[in-house]
Amino acid sequence: MKKKDFVIKLLVLVVAFFIIDFGLSTVLLRGLNKYYGLEKQTEVLFNGSSMFMSGFDRNVVENKTGLTVSNYSHEGVSIRERLEMIKQVYHKHPEGFETVVFELSPVIFSGVETSANVYTAFFPFMDDESINVYIKEFATTREYYIRKIVRTSRFDSRLIVNIIKGYLGKFQNVKTSQLHSRIDEELKASEGAVNIYMKESNIAIFKEAIDLIISKNSKVILVNMPVYNAKLRTFNVNDYKEFNDFLETYSLSNSQISYLNMNVDSIISERKYFSDPLHINNYGQKVLNSIVSEELNKITSIN
Amino acid sequence: MLFTSFNFFIFFPIVILLYYLTPVKYRWMVLLGASYFFYINIKPVYAILLLAITASTYIFTRMIDSTGDEDRKLLLMRINVALILVPLFFFKYFTIINNELLELLELNNLRWPLPEIKFILPIGISYYTFMSIGYTIDVYNEDIKADKHFGRVALFTAFFPLILSGPIERAGNMLPQFKNLKQINFSNISGGLKMMLWGYFMKLVVADRIGIYVDAIYGDILGHNGTSLLIATVLYPFQVYADLGGYSLIAIGVAKILGIDVMQNFNRPFFATSMAEFWRRWHMSLITWLTDYVYTPLSFAFRKIGMLGIIIALMVTFLLSGIWHHADMTSIMWGLTQGTFLSIEALLHKRRFRLEEKYQLTKSSLYLFSCMLVTFVLFSASQIFGRAVTIEDSWAIFDKLFTNIGVPYLDLTTLLYSFIGIFLLLIKDFKNEFMPVAFNSYWNRKLYLRYAAYLTVLFGIILFGVFEGGNFIYFQF
């Protein structure tokens, strides 16, 4: 092979690479937007973490309420990412949503149990100004510029699964595994041992997110997601009361906010609804779909 | 610096550029400088050890070459082999022996004078030790002449594509190439890049993905049932193949870009129809090294006792191979298992051959497939000793495999990607094994088909690669 031939072929390959990279990343981003329901303006937005991902099937909620629904939730996100997600969706859809369903869990203000590399889930959206600023804060320079140059590198295998689901339009929780009976015994040992911290900084971020939603004339449903009762009992009783009281008081501070506590006995005492103590399975999802749809119907009928 | 690290993608293009801009006469200097820079980048102090082994090998091979006295030659060869082996033994086995002794003495209320010391095994020490020993023995056997050029010998032991995990090359192949470094050849560059691309696919997409599942299961043997252990046990051989095979392909590709041909390390091992054939296809550079420098001399020494001599040679060779991997009971069991399988095969070889002849079995696809399956099952079972941390864990796994059946641990995404990766790997191997000229994508005459193949693999790596997968498995050896 001659030098000239080699150089030409290499150049053609590089050009082909970047053309395909652009095309493929566009297709992938479209699929991801479809998965979250962000490709179009919807009336209801769900925003949360893995609890919301496993908890609701937006197709079912749409059928039950007649409202269009998006579910922008990602596993491992902390309150900080949640604020970024809210900013991003309002930037993308400035007209806003009628209602935002906002996930809460006892540890949301504690600042724990979030993945260290959760920012990688937002690489696909780095063309969005606010997400770009957020990513710059967490990603290394190398990570950042590789993703800027090679667009497909913004996606990873976890996101590909969601993209496939997005194109298929299937959002049902397929997990049918249920909690084992020995879980009660295992968790009993740490009853009351887990503290819930109400960190001021995290509460401030939470309030900023809610204020942003309200400023766009959207209603907010704060959903305290169900935690299997033996797991719930591992939290310090006084801490949990303080957490719950805070949310109840906060929701009363503004008529646009309502509070839905799903930690009710009929759900949290049923092992059959949980795939693990924090996450709902397929059977539990059906129950949660109905409850949240009912709440949405209630709110829309008031309007 | 690892092949999968970002730094390598800066380092290697610079090396290529410098290499081809330098006059041919001085190119060895670029390669030697690059090799030491590559190695020093991992841990600078261990480069001294590499240099010392190189110096010892250079001096002794020159002395062996220049003496006519056979006894002196033998003595010099033995001294150098012993000298070269000292660091390997020290770093690999000192901590283990010291700990065992400490424990033993403490049982008798005695104190061992040396405290508990833990040494980190210098990366690549096994590989440059083996290559240096091979060179010394080859000079002793007069298969090759000792090279008078210290720089070339240093390059042979430190050549950066091979130093971390092989292939374990022979001086007879490498030194003449270093002596006559080639002009730039764009077909070599293109061929090398293709190998590297597939090597990265094997490592990042297949090996590291499977590793997530295998690590999760083998990391908590008591917490998982037999079905999960069975899946992990079946997956593990593919992980090692994709990991070391991928690494080897990258190394061979890197060398090829520099115009140097390096021996193949894997040859579609899962299509082997016997354990003997399997070991001719798996980690070939290690096995041919062991065959030439351990098995052949041993079987020659025991030739008078016939088949028993072969069995002893096989058992000792694989026992040494096991101990080389780790000085613990699991590795010893691994070596003995391989030796046993091969010995049984050797004993039954004639009978099997007669049966195959009589019933024309080698023409039956079903028979060949059954043989491949049995070979795979035997190898997978033996790899339980290769992967389990302790011998107790190994027995627990064997026990659970047959008694603790249940719903497996389902990390669906990982399993799905793992099986797709294995499927693609096997499809490619199948095509190369049985239809080497058909459906050629990488080497297709049509440019657009070749490009489609490259880009598919490249985007496969970008989208499905595990980039935080960590080291290559064989670095630890």
Name of the CATH architecture of chain A:
3-Layer(aba) Sandwich
The count of domains of chain A is: 1
Helicity range of chain B: over 70%
Which segments of chain A are poorly predicted (pLDDT under 50) over 5 or more consecutive residues?
none
Strand content of chain B: under 5%
Low-confidence blocks of residues of chain B: none
CATH superfamily of chain A: SGNH hydrolase
Number of helices of chain B: 17
Radius of gyration of chain A: 21 Å
Share of helix of chain A, binned:
40-55%
Query: What fraction of the residues of chain A are assigned to beta strands by DSSP?
Result: 5-15%
Number of strands of chain B: 0
Helix/strand-derived class of chain A?
Answer: alpha/beta
Question: Outline of chain A, from the CA principal axes?
Answer: globular
Summarize the structure.
The complex is a heterodimer of chains A (303) and B (477). With 303 residues, chain A is of the alpha/beta class.
Explain what this protein looks like in three dimensions.
- The complex is a heterodimer of chains A (303) and B (477).
- With 303 residues, chain A is of the alpha/beta class.
- Chain A contains 13 helices and seven strands.
- Chain A has helices at 3-36, 50-55, 58-65, 79-92, 129-138, 141-149, 157-168, 182-188, 200-215, 229-232, 237-252, 265-268, 282-302, and strands at residues 44-48, 69-73, 99-104, 219-224, 257-261, 274-276, 279-280.
- In chain A, the strands form two sheets. In chain A, strands 2-1-3-4-5 form a five-stranded parallel beta sheet, with helices on both faces.
- In chain A, helix 1 (3-36) crosses helix 7, helix 3 packs parallel to helix 13 and helix 4 (79-92) packs parallel to helix 9 (200-215).
- The model of chain A has no long low-confidence stretch (mean pLDDT 90).
- With 477 residues, chain B is mainly α.
- Chain B is built from 17 helices and no strands.
- Chains A and B meet through helix 1 and helix 7 of A and helix 8 and helix 17 of B.
